[in-house]
Amino acid sequence: MRPVCPPIRHFHCQLARVPQRRNLLTLAIETSCDDTSVAVLEKHKNNTATLHFHSKITSDNRSYRGVYPIAAHESHQKNIAGLVKEALQHLPPSGSERNGKTLSIRRENGNSARKIPDFITVTRGPGMRASLITGLDTAKGLAVAWQIPLLGVNHMQAHALTPRLVAALDGASLDLASDTRNLLGNVIHSKATGDITRGTEVGRSMEASPPFPFLTLLVSGGHTMLVHSKSLCDHEILASTTDIAVGDMLDKSARDVLPSSLLETAPDVMYGRVLETFALAQSDTKSPSFGGSASQGSSESLYGWKINTPYARSGPKGARSHLQSFSFSGIGSTAKRVVDQNPEMGEGERRHLARDIMRVAFEHLVSRVLLSLEAPETKNIRTLVVSGGVASNQYLKQVFRDALDREGYEDMTLVFPPPKYCTDNAAMIAWTGLEMYEAGWRTDLSAMALRKWAIDLKADDGGILGIDGWHNVAVH
Ligand code: AMP
Ligand code: ZN
């Protein structure tokens, strides 16, 4: 898509930041794929946040063995109004100290005065068009009815900002409970600094955390990209997949490798998760690579097959000639071929194959992180966030920590936000709305859903601020 409003591309989000003297409340809607999700999030003056409501309903795509756009669209249409209705019950009470608008909510024991959100946030793109439209139109309706601004935000920017949401939530819970509950998920420090997973105090600070710049590796069902987040709206894509996403490959490979009894009883179509459970279920002495720390590269298994590491040796500069590229389709097609050649394959060999698929994929992922860290612009970065559904994989965490330590990055902090905030969810959309709102951004009610919408400033569409429909209340 061409930039319709080019000058807006040059505004720097941080410069337009509007200081907030009060708490900010938003109701957020996410419908970009097959999850219908609604959240109510409040950001406090000290940058902590309270999640008053967060719920999602995922369309049942099991019979299609993958996300089916029509089923996803129907599920959004069926569920969005009910979720919003439920969310209203969780809006904070409208106390006398609040100067916002009040909504009277009907409850079993009479009416209750609730605060109307300061604005509505919704995913505007990228995603499946019909799904996005369901959420966007609902959001526009609420914004018009309540006479409040609309923020149509970028789904990928929201994934990149997720660790800042989680730190803010963690800060609020620490302030409220004074305990060490670890809402930040795993913050895994290197062995050199103690090899710990700890609760964190970062959310207490007045600045959002982690501060920019940081690196995010987004590993989901639809995306595989390494992003250098320099500021709220400036995210440079350092590497991305040239074929399919790692989660997509794991899902497809799982369908080839898993015993059919496991596939039939899977609770949803996140077969990658089932693949991990299957691979980890039993220790197998024939698999020394699993749980080991040294990089295995591509070595032949005891069963005679081998999965090649993508882009390992090709090109005159070896792996460096493909440092901006991930590739996963080769891993998936090798796994399929191995099973096709031996349809009666026993469970032990299937388990071994499942482990090797993950090992080669995760070593490939971390190889691009290590190559990117050699560049002058990134060499001082010491925070790597790994987010997206695949980031909940325990083996991936181990492969990353081991590889970073082995290559001299013991001081690199690895942040794995909790899975519920890594998969598609409305809380991350709400947080993105809050940060964009504070930077002065608002979305026109005429804004359309965007099937494609880059987050990189250098992309053809100009990235987050390159598209039409934004206006900034702080720069006029
Ligand atoms: P997302 O696209 O961020 O909603 O994440 C969904 C993707 O993550 C799907 O491809 C899942 O199969 C994958 N996934 C979820 N949990 C795991 C896991 N533990 N190991 C590997 N992949 C996973
Ligand atoms: Zn997503």
Q: How much is the average pLDDT?
A: 84
Helix-strand makeup class: alpha/beta
User: Low-confidence spans: pLDDT under 50, at least 5 residues?
Assistant: 1-16, 174-185, 190-205, 285-294
Q: Which architecture name of the largest domain does CATH use?
A: 2-Layer Sandwich
CATH superfamily of the largest domain, by name, is: ATPase, nucleotide binding domain
Ligand species: adenosine monophosphate, zinc ion
Strand order of the largest sheet: 8-14-13-9-10-11-12
- State the helicity in percent bands: 25-40%
Series of secondary-structure elements, N-terminal to C-terminal: EEEHEEEHEHEEEEHHHEHHEHEHHEE
Oligomer: single chain
DSSP helix count?
Answer: 11
- Range of strand content: 15-25%
Radius of gyration: 23 Å
What is the tally of beta strands?
16
CATH C-level category of the largest domain = Alpha Beta
Number of domains: 2
What does the overall shape look like? globular
Biggest sheet details: 7 strands, mixed
